[in-house]
Amino acid sequence: MYLLYFAFIILIPLWAQWKVKSTFTKYSRISAATYHRGAEVAREILNANGLYNVAVEEGRGFLSDHYDPSSKTVRLSPENYHGHSIAAAAVAAHECGHAIQDAQGYAFLRFRHALVPVANLGSNASWILIMIGIFAHLSGMLLLGIICMAAAVLFQIVTLPVEFNASSRAMDQIASLRLVGSGEEREARKVLNAAALTYVAAAAVAVLELLRLVLIFTGMNRSED
Description:
mainly alpha, 3-stranded mixed beta sheet, 3 strands, 5% strand, Zinc metallopeptidase, transmembrane, Zn_peptidase_2, transmembrane helix, membrane
């Protein structure tokens, strides 16, 4: 049973990563009809929403695209910054979706930002406390580790509406500004949907691990009674 469980939590993220890479690779080879570079798509969306203060920069690494709220910067990986593909347009639009969220004070984005220090602390400390609690048979230590892990899991869960909303905003911008051809919007959505799978998989695995530890804790308490 445990072997099946661990196979499941390992295979799901691997499948999600494969789906993202394969979908991105497919649509990064297809040029958008508008032939805009990803950087141009991002700049057009930002300007259309009055976000002239948000910079668009070339980042480093494969699929390293992100929006940095501290410096108000959309950073696109080299292939998306310079690329003219449907994938580049979709990813650039998604990161601009985060910039629009930030400018409009989107509640879930603000909540996620507030959770960052708590989630980082919980993620770093949880497994140390959990392992001590399990091997030393200290239920109180295990409970503390579970609470720390719960903070990191909450961050993963809150990330889901943030990412889905950013993709929804991205598609609205792509359609209204006609940033890809009229028949290419469905392909752009496929890229965004594949990317969303990684967040869904991460959240699902995190929740399952938390539930497993809660069951271990309750079992430990029963054995102590």
